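Tokens help. Our protein:
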Amino acid sequence: MTRNHTVAGPASGPGTAPTTSPTAAPAAGQQASPPGNVSQRVVEEMVAAAILAPSMLNTQPWRFRFEPASQTIEVYADPARTLRCADPDGRAVHIACGAALLNLRLAAAAAGRLPVSRLIPAVTERLLLATLRLARPCQAKPDEIELHAAIPHRRTNRSPFSGRPVAPGILAELAEAARVEGAAWHVPDSQETSRLLELARDAERAQLADPGYRAELALWAGGARERDGVPDDVTAPRDPRGAAPVRDFTPARPEPVRYAWFEEQPQLAVLATQSSGRSDWLRAGQALQRVLLTATLRGIAVSPLTQPLETPDAWLVRDPGNGFEYPQMILRIGYGLPVPHSPRRPVTEVLSIAQADGAD
């Protein structure tokens, strides 16, 4: 697997695909694109792929703006969808938008354009996290086509997994997927796994003692949801033995929706970066999404276990044996049964198109 672009600089690899014509006729109400430009309809299809990225509590904290003149899609954080208690520094927002950017890159390649991305392009505009320029026509690589096809099939699986460990060859593929995007991938041994699970339990107890965090859970999780948040049908069951290796989304509910026996020895992986600034969080998001899509292609179920990274004691997650790195995600991996998808808002709510006069 080879890196197909350069973050925060010119792209170094391809991105074109035979599935969609970038000069297709515009639909009613859409402006016609100049010859050689990508049409608004195709941009909408790209953004439709981008918003299938994961986000903490499924807040979908992103907005997109397309500038037809420069053929550039801008990725913004949506401040109305931040979690002030669970994510006060915005790390999870950046990771989510980074994951959306990876989907956007793959969708651009599948639409027949070389994706040229830049991270944090304007330090004075903090909500603008990245830009993606749709450069020259180019042929997509086979792995880009495969990963793009996996986007609508990716799920966060909070159900119990079987006790079968993930095969070493697949673990190597997941590590390579992270490396391609500039991140490290570690699979801890049983002793380190037990330590991380205990950190997760301690962190969640501390979070649930915070009324602000519980209010955010109540706002974004539980019940029937059609646009965002975590509906009941994708929350985790509760383990009759006690703590399960998943987040409790509905702690105030007197009775759980359902019970299930979780695997006795969960298999974990840690995604880490060399630094921990805003650009690093965006890179971590892209690495996360490439890992998740690769896992989807290999039939591997994944769920996040990031509570320890959401507290002031996040440094405790770091394993001294892995050198001086910054853990960005803890993932539970394994083999599980299919689960429903989480809801998404329509593209029309998250995408704006710049007009010829510069207005949106």
